[in-house]
Amino acid sequence: MNQGEQRPQYDEIDLGDLLVGLWDGKWILIGCTLAAFLIGLVYIVVPNHAQQARVEIFPISVNEANKYAPLNQTEFISTSRERLVNDFVTELQSRDIIVEAAREVLIDPDAQAPEASAVAFANNVELIAPVPDDANRAHWTMTFSAASQQSAKQLTTRIVELGNAKLRSNLTQLFEQQLQFDLRSKQLRLEDLREERENALEDYTRRTEQRLAFLEEQAALARSQSLAQSALLEGNTFGRNATVTQIEADVPYYFAGYVAIEKEIEMIENRENKENFVPQLTEIDQNIRQIQQDRSAARARAAFAATPLATDQFAAVNYDPRDIQFTPTIRRSLILVASIMLGGFIGLMVLIMRNALRNRKAA
Question: Is 284 among the domain residues?
């Protein structure tokens, strides 16, 4: 027999020996698997994993909303539960307050590009609109990922604080703008009414001047005809069956006689208060008094001062950090299964290597 036939075949694996070796090293296999399982379990239990936070945006209570009822009656501004929530969500959608809150709470100011990191985080925040027919999605919902529950609560609290402050500022500014607009409208209306009043008096003066010129002309005509008394009463001029309409339409005014015409001239010239003879002044003066006596702006300011908008306690939404729902971002079952498989594989490799070494030494 030659040397090639007598050389041991160390590279061959006997399946029977392998099974026997696995059974002999079953505790190594179990130990590795159990150790890997425990490591995976500890990894899951340790509360340092990213959390998926879900914040439901609730409107303020009915009792809180009733505090705005007197202000709503002034018609300068309307504040309701629905409007406050919608305005708050609009601020969230602009992402500005989310960026600011993330910059203050989550981002290290000494880190590289903190502003870009804050903007990136804000862009990953998801706002989910309510579904009217779904009781579980009846309100707006905000979801985002955070390193821990504590940081998520701090971030959400800061977002709500910034949103309340921004919304309070916007509503206060809108209210002041409405008051200024109302004041300016009243001032312009007063200017128009006063100008209308002056025009009415000026029109009266012109009509009076025209009337006096006409009467003086008619009085001169009556004197030229020696008509001292009214000729309208003389039957030989119109006849007994003449009507007033016929007299007014057909008869010259000087037929009234210069005595009556000159008396009328004297009475017109001696009028002390010409405003009594301008009938439209009554309505104009009523409108002026109505504007001057209007106290709606003062009442609106008093009503505004009695609302939460005038205090630091203003809240656009009903928020409680305890209402935040957290979901771990890791897949627990997948990690445990992977840990068991990895532990079993490591144990198997250890046994194979041990058996191979034993066989080599035995040979």
Answer: yes
* Residue 323 to residue 305: CA distance in whole angstroms: 31
Residue-averaged pLDDT of the chain: 84
pLDDT at 239 over 90: no
Q: Is residue 214 part of a domain?
A: yes
pLDDT tens by residue, 161-186: 999 999 999 999 999 999 999 999 99
145: in domain: no
Q: What residue type is 196 in one-letter code?
A: E
Is 345 within a domain? no
- Alpha-carbon distance of 137 to 129, in angstroms, equals 8
Total domains present in the chain: 1
Triad 248, 249, 254: Cα angle to 5°? 55
- Rounded-to-integer distance, Cα 250 and Cα 266, Å: 26
Q: Which structural domain, as residue segments, surrounds residue 219?
A: 189-298
Rounded distance between C-alpha atoms, residue 185 and residue 198, angstroms: 20
pLDDT of residue 21: 63
Contact 112/106 with Cβ under 8 angstroms?
no
Higher-scoring residue by pLDDT: 270, 147? 270
